[in-house]
Amino acid sequence: MPVPPDLPPPDAGTTVQGDPLVDALAQLAFAVQAVITDVATSRDLTTVQTRLLGILRDREVGMRELADLMGLEKSSATGLVDRAARRGLVERSTRPDDGRAVRVALTEAGRSLAAEAGAEIGQGVRRLCDPLAPDDRERLIAFAAAITASASPGRSPAAEHRVRGARASCGGTGTRTQVTHP
User: Fold this and answer.
1) 89 neighbors 48 (Cβ within 8 angstroms)
2) What counts of helices (H) and strands (E) characterise the chain?
3) Are 52 and 80 within 8 A, CB to CB?
4) Which of the chain's termini has less CB crowding within 10 Å, N or C?
5) Residue 104's closest CA among 128, 158, 68, 136?
6) With a threshold of 0.85, does the pTM exceed it?
């Protein structure tokens, strides 16, 4: 889809406020988040709980990995898992080779709820794309894949920031990296 002619292309001096790319992506993120929030609310879930179900729908993870995937501190992830476990949506287990390592997985009820919510979220997001021609949908898929692949694999930016901060505050030898934007 071409940029409307009344919006100038961004340049080095353009602020985020006047950048049509940033505005378009932010508006898209808000629209997708609204779909997720509506589905979560209709199932008496928070968006964070819905995200938890989405992450666990096809895997079992350790608490540290879960915290990293969600961009949370480990204590916050523990509280989230506690609340989901009380609802019967997740269960904890220990690894046979290390009884201290706690793993988290969906229960049958959690898998069922994740599947239902996931299907409804999928329908809502597809509805957002109804105005697009099939070729534009394919391009959107490719663009979204390229953008998400450029993010830190398996770790949210918030988690990456926490890890770097923890290394620095602990006197770690991790090197600082310069973040650049193409």
Assistant:
1) no
2) 7, 3
3) yes
4) C
5) 68
6) no
Long-range contacts of 68-76 (CB under 8 A, 24+ apart): 68/154, 68/155, 68/156, 68/159, 68/163, 69/154, 69/155, 69/156, 69/159, 70/156, 70/159, 71/156, 71/157, 71/158, 71/159, 72/158, 72/159, 73/162
Q: What is the pLDDT along the chain (182 residues), one digit of tens a residue?
A: 444 445 445 454 445 567 899 999 999 999 999 999 999 999 999 999 999 999 999 999 999 999 999 999 999 999 999 999 999 999 999 877 777 889 999 999 999 999 999 999 999 999 999 999 999 999 999 999 999 888 755 545 554 554 444 434 344 433 333 333 33
Give the Cα separation of 126 and 148 in Å (integer).
18
Contact 107, 91 (CB under 8 A): yes
Residue type, 102: V
